[in-house]
Amino acid sequence: MYIGYTADLRSRFREHNQGLSQATRHRQPFDLVYYEAFKAKKDAVVRERMIKQYKQGYTNLKKRISASLEPRKWGEESPDTILNQESR
């Protein structure tokens, strides 16, 4: 998991996947599975610091992300099936 802040998420994500960031070059390719947006840079910096410095903040975030990526247990119909029926 990579934690950082940027003013341009698309550009920064592309840099990481192209190996242009020395810190993450050895861990590519990346998949974007979660991000938080802030109006003020200072708020983003505070949040990044909180996640990186406090183990509980990091652990809780990692659990939330992992839980959101687990396959859902649906009934007979999957969300894709339902969406496809609604678009007809």
Count up the helices.
4
| Helix share bin | 40-55%
Strand content: under 5%
Order of helices and strands: HHHH
Counted up, domains total: 1
**Main β-sheet, in a few words?**
none
**Record field, number of beta strands:** 0
Gyration radius from CA atoms, angstroms: 17 Å
Structural class: mainly alpha
Low-confidence stretches: none
**Gap from first CA to last CA:** 39 Å
Shape type:
globular
Q: What number is the mean pLDDT?
A: 82
Q: What would a concise description of this structure say?
A:
The protein is mainly α and 88 residues long. It has four helices and no strands.
Written account of the structure:
The protein has helices at 9-17, 41-53, 55-69, 79-86. It has one domain. The protein has 88 residues and is mainly alpha-helical. The termini are far apart. The chain is globular, with a radius of gyration of 17 Å. The longest helix is centred in the last third of the chain and has 15 residues, at 55-69.
Task: Set down the secondary structure blueprint.
Blueprint: H1 9-17, H2 41-53, H3 55-69, H4 79-86
For this entry, give a set of tags:
about 0% strand, mainly alpha, 4 helices, about 90 residues
